[in-house]
Design goal:
Elements lengths: L1 E6 L4 H13 L3 E7 L19 E5 L5 H10 L4 E4 L6 H6 L1 H23 E2 L2 E2 L4 E7 L23 H20 L3 E6 L1 E3 L8 H10 L4 E4 L5 E6 H14 L5 E4 L4 E3 H15 L9 E4 L14 H7 L7 H14 L1 H9 L3 H8 L3
Parallel strand pairs: 1-2, 1-4, 2-3, 4-7, 7-8, 8-12, 9-11, 10-14
Antiparallel strand pairs: 5-6, 11-13
Helix pairs in contact: 1-7, 2-4, 4-5, 6-8
The protein binds nicotinamide-adenine-dinucleotide (NAD) and thymidine-5'-diphosphate.
Length: 351
């Protein structure tokens, strides 16, 4: 039975990953380690609250003693590091916490894992550290071309620069200590449990409340959208079959301008929920500082080496995501009002 230490597993992608893995495998154990910042929410894990192979531990990836203790208590085979500060706008306001969590937290995890896994002749067999990174470390594209694994790192925001710094520390542990690692760099995700500070859930939430839809700049910046479950599938494949030391880009050739996303969300909600939801809600606002123009991934390596491909088209994924938000209005209300603590008390009382 393999034991995974999943950090940030109460956040958006991490919780989807934990649910995906426990649904797919009955012979793994997941130690889910999360600080429960504003972005972490145990309500996301309700579907697996009775699963004996899921253990939740609240804590900070920067805390050496606590992370060391996890390795003492559990026989950890894999680390999958999702834990991060993840929102670009917040990073522009408060860069320090991004450097601390994303860079120093990653170094702490790497170091504790290395000390636990190193033997006299190298590393224990079958262990691996996987860093969940982002395409934003590559910077911004012009009208043509794609990011590939060899594209030089050229991050711009404090968020993407902290992720690039973390990636380089992972590379340092691989190059210097021969530590078994992989890095995945995925494009923008969307799907259930995404915190409504990010574009798609923010649009859905604002539409439902008849609030303005803030569009930064001219609305023509381009992101490459991937349904979160396809990202989870890619991470599973890389942990289990990725070549040691390699970087894998993950994306499904789903580029859209922000304005296309805004109009798609409005159209769906206008038709299915409320005729008052319309383009009159769109409000152009001041552009984000240093706003990257375009991201686009060429996923040929992960396709050819591991057989990964995206299963959910954007048209299907966006409908599923909007519908999920409509079916889970309590979740939205709870995360925006901090009420989820009650789920923590209910799920983990006495454990
Ligand atoms: P998120 O903000 O929804 O979740 C982050 C989680 O990490 C939260 O549960 C939070 O409580 C936890 N956390 C934060 N600081 C911590 C700390 N010091 N110790 C322990 N836990 C801590 O983020 P997300 O969108 O789910 O992103 C997860 C990872 O995937 C991040 O590393 C991000 O850089 C990467 N990523 C995200 C996207 C995307 O589109 N969201 C795309 C590519 C890569
Ligand atoms: P976001 O979801 O924050 O992801 P990222 O910045 O990591 O790509 O933003 C996606 C795009 O949407 C980005 O170009 C910024 C833009 N955006 C808006 O126009 N309005 C908003 O309110 C938000 C949150 C983002």
């Amino acid at each position: 039975m393999k034991t995974y230490l999943v950090t940030g597993g109460a956040g958006f992608i991490g919780s989807n990953f934990v649910i995906y893995m426990l649904g797919k495998y009955s012979d793994i154990k997941i130690v889910n380690f999360d600080k429960l910042t504003y972005a972490g929410n145990l309500e996301n894990l309700k579907a697996i609250e009775n699963n004996k192979n899921h253990i939740f531990v609240q804590g900070d990836i920067c805390d050496k003693e606590v992370v060391e203790n996890l390795f003492k208590v559990y026989d950890i085979d894999y680390v999958v590091n999702f834990a991060a500060e993840s929102h670009v706008d917040r990073s522009i306001k408060e860069p320090e916490i991004f450097a601390k969590t994303n860079v120093l937290g990653t170094v702490n995890l790497l170091n504790v894992a290395k000390n636990a896994w190193e033997t006299e002749t190298g590393f224990k067999a079958g262990v691996k550290y996987l860093q969940v990174s982002t395409d934003e470390v590559y910077g911004s594209l012009g009208e043509t071309g794609y990011f590939v694994e060899e594209t030089p790192l050229d991050s711009h925001s404090p968020y993407s620069s902290s992720k690039a710094g973390a990636d380089l520390m992972v590379k340092a542990y691989a190059d210097t200590f021969k530590m078994p690692v992989n890095i995945t760099r995925c494009s923008n995700n969307y799907g259930p449990f995404q915190f409504p500070e990010k574009l798609i859930p923010l649009l859905i939430n604002n539409c439902l409340n008849h609030k303005d839809l803030p569009v930064y700049g001219d609305g023509l910046n381009i992101r490459d959208w991937l349904y979160v479950e396809d990202h989870c599938k890619a991470i599973d494949m890389v942990i289990n079959n990725g070549r040691l030391g390699e970087v894998y880009n993950v994306g499904g050739h789903n580029e859209r301008t922000n304005m296309q996303i805004v109009k798609t969300v409005i159209e769906y909600l206008h038709e299915s929920v409320d005729k008052e939801i319309s383009e009159t809600l769109i409000k152009y606002v001041e552009d984000r500082k240093g706003h990257d123009k375009r991201y686009g991934i060429d996923p040929v390596k992960i396709k050819e080496e591991l057989g990964w491909y995206p299963e959910t088209t954007f048209e299907v994924g966006i409908k599923k995501t909007i519908q999920w938000n409509l079916d889970n209005k309590d979740w939205m209300n709870n995360v925006t009002s901090g009420q989820y603590q009650k789920y923590y008390d209910k799920m983990y009382e006495g454990k």
